[in-house]
Amino acid sequence: MRLPPEGARWLVSLRWLACGAVVVVIWLSSSVLSVLAHPLPLYLVAAAMAGYNVLFYLAGRRTSAGEGNVERSIFFQILFDLISLVILLYFADLPRNPFLFFFVFHMIIAGMYLRGWAPYFCAAMSTTMVGGVMLLLNFGWLPPHPLKFPAEAKGLEMLGVFAAFACALWVAVYFTTSIRRYVDRAHAELRQKEKMLGIGQLVAGIAHQIANPLDGVQNCLARIGEGVKDDPHLTEYVQLMAEALERIERTAKRVQAFARPRGITLQSTDVNQAVEGTLDVLGGSHGHNIRVRKELGAVAPVQGDPYTLQEVLFNLCTNALNAMPDGGTLTLRTYALGSKDEDQMGSVAIDVSDTGIGISRVNLERIFEPFFTTRAQSGGTGLGLGLCRMLISEMGGRIEVRSALGQGTTFTVILSRRATDRRGGYASA
Asked: For residue 427, is it within any domain?
């Protein structure tokens, strides 16, 4: 299961709330309830938490959203949080502080986002630090910082226990439901890929059955061409038939390549060149009153497969043309997202836009499902967009769509920029 890049940003966002809550609790405990005698060390720890949270936020914007980078970021965030929590509790009567059980939350996060030995390391580190502080306090090697509850307010200690209990319940529910949503989303994506794999194997088998007889037909057509070479009209017809058979053969081989394991070779890919190649394949005849525009920006090479990217763009353009039966404008646009894309920093986007009939909100949620199509009567199979999303996903990218009825649809293909080597050039595949 691929580690979601939003996990690191989710922790950063959540930590801002935690820093605010810590400051409020310190202020209430010291200034209002007079339970905490020395709040200054705790304020310093809260300031340190806010400081390293800023650093994690800036680091997340500069680095790529690869799985290794995300996991490393989450690990160090948990590490810093555990140290901060131990220091906070030490200055607030650690052995009797009811918020001691908040360590469980970081264990949940570690178990969800980290793999291998990392979750166990976090648990061992928490156990060692808390146990070590308790041991040093027991032998008097560390000065204690007890919470002083006034005699006239006997219910304050019980109120603190209840507050810790309630917070633990609600935060645990928040964490577990967030995890459940991610698991459901990942499970749905896995089922989608399994369906498309089975469909790809089926189509590849059909393509193989088509390719075999084509060889015989082409050989027969070549013999016929030799017999009619004195007739220019018949020779022209034979040539047209031969070209059509070659296109069928190329299509069959492409379909087989889709289902072949490791059919995509990631390499430095020029998206502008892929757009130009797609327009060349589309040709000059696009239908009645249809204009084609291209807006190619100065974008860096991406990590992808040039051939597969061109196939995806061709499919999206074909859908866009079919969505404009009364004419319109097909626009292909390339541009760099840069820091605007939080999921893939430095990514490049390709828009395929039409001014056609648009997609309803109900259908918009299902367009990537296998066999779902609104053009069944005209021969649509519902396989194109599902294959497109699967192929772009194999290249480490994603497809987004936005549409409005009567105004048109825009599909956006987003791919990661090709990594550079230390000399500033692009790394080879």
From this structure: no
User: What six digits make up the tokens of 293?
Assistant: 């525009």
Torsions phi, psi for 412 (to 5 deg): -120, 120
Q: Are residues 358 and 317 in the same domain?
A: yes
Q: Rounded CA gap, 124 and 58, in Å? A: 29
Give the span between the Cα atoms of 287 and 59, in whole angstroms.
49
Shared domain for 218 and 274, answered yes or no, is no
For residue 227, the surrounding DSSP H or E stretch is: helix 155-227
Residues 250, 271 within the same domain: no
Separation CA 64–CA 398 (nearest Å): 15
Is the distance from CB of 4 to CB of 343 less than 8 angstroms? no
Which residue, among 98, 95, 84, 102, has the nearest Cα to 163 in the 3D structure?
Answer: 98
250 and 273 together in one domain: no
Token pair 């200054």 is found at 40
Task: Pick the closest to residue 113 from 156, 70, 76, 81 (CA basis).
Answer: 70
Q: Please, what's the b/e burial string for 146-155 (b: 16 or more CB within 10 A of its CB; e: otherwise)?
A: ebebeeeeee
271 and 253 within one domain: no
276 falls within a domain: yes
CA distance 108 to 427: 38
Strand partners, 295: 333
pLDDT tens for the chain, 429 residues long, are 444 556 677 888 889 999 999 999 999 888 888 888 889 999 999 999 999 999 998 887 765 555 567 788 889 999 999 999 999 999 999 988 888 888 988 888 888 788 889 999 999 999 999 999 999 999 999 999 888 877 666 677 788 888 888 888 888 888 788 777 777 776 766 666 666 666 666 666 776 677 677 777 878 888 888 888 778 888 888 888 888 787 777 766 665 655 555 456 788 899 999 998 888 777 666 667 888 999 999 998 998 888 889 888 988 988 888 888 888 999 999 999 866 665 556 789 999 999 998 888 877 777 777 655 655 444 443 346 877 887 888 888 889 899 888 889 999 999 988 765 333 444 433
- pTM of the predicted structure, to 2 decimals: 0.52
What's the CA gap between 203 and 255, in Å, rounded? Answer: 7
- Given a contact cutoff of 8 angstroms between Cβ atoms, the answer to whether 109 and 78 are in contact is yes
Question: Do 110 and 123 form a contact (C-beta atoms < 8 A)?
Answer: yes
